[in-house]
Amino acid sequence: MRVLEVDHPLVAHKLTVLRDKTTPSPVFRQLTEELVTLLAYEATRDVRTQPVEIETPVTRTVGTAFTKPTPLVVPILRAGLGMLEGMTKLVPTAEVGFLGMARNEETLEAITYAERLPADLTGRQVFVLDPMLATGGTLREAIKFLFARGAADVTCICLLGAPEGLKMLEAELGDAENVTIVLASVDDRLDEHAYIVPGLGDAGDRLYGIAG
Ligand SMILES: O=P(O)(O)OC[C@H]1O[C@H](OP(=O)(O)OP(=O)(O)O)[C@H](O)[C@@H]1O
Ligand SMILES: O=c1cc[nH]c(=O)[nH]1
Ligand SMILES: [Mg+2]
């Protein structure tokens, strides 16, 4: 498993405003989108491409095109939905599948309540979007699910991660060369409720309001 913490002043600045508890939802949504676009630039470095011959107004030349089938982007509902627009802006030809998952806040177990993905993901490159990697339970289940469907490799784009969650994923998937986690920051720790510290609070609530 590869972990890439993106070190860039634009990312650091936007993340600081995002963390601020006085930042209202509309600004939070806008910043999330902008951050994902910056992270996606790094996360797509190994996207599969092939040479393609084209004609410019001047001459014929060989350029680069995505290899088919195109990448599949999977936002994890709810909070991951706030990252979708930022990703598809950069990769507009990507297909999009959905996973609805929620962490039980008492047991911390991740449950899957919705799934709309191609039945066969054989050979597909998959980009998972979820802003928070706390205990890592949600991403572990999502990654397992995608490999069970045949995905070739999985890159998770997150805003924040906790060392505890990364350690757990490393222990479970450490040998997997086809898993990459790209984050804006690896924070300090989890608190007693398994919230990321310093974190940004509940990403879903800050994007969309309090869950029922
Ligand atoms: O690493 P974990 O400990 O599993 O926690 C992280 C998960 O918690 C949040 O979702 P949540 O369950 O709050 O659902 P929501 O997006 O609907 O708010 C977050 O978006 C992750 O999916
Ligand atoms: O800090 C955290 C942990 C889990 N889910 C969130 O939205 N935030
Ligand atoms: Mg939530």
UniProtKB/TrEMBL annotation:
Domain Phosphoribosyltransferase: 6-209
Cofactor: Mg(2+)
InterPro entries, A to Z: PRTase-like, PRTase_dom, Upp_B, UPRT, UPRTase/APRTase
Superkingdom of origin: Bacteria
UniProt lineage: Bacteria, Bacillati, Actinomycetota, Actinomycetes, Micrococcales
Protein name: Uracil phosphoribosyltransferase
Species annotation: Crystallibacter crystallopoietes
Annotated residues for binding of uracil: 196, 201-203
Positions that bind 5-phospho-alpha-D-ribose 1-diphosphate: 78, 103, 130-138, 202
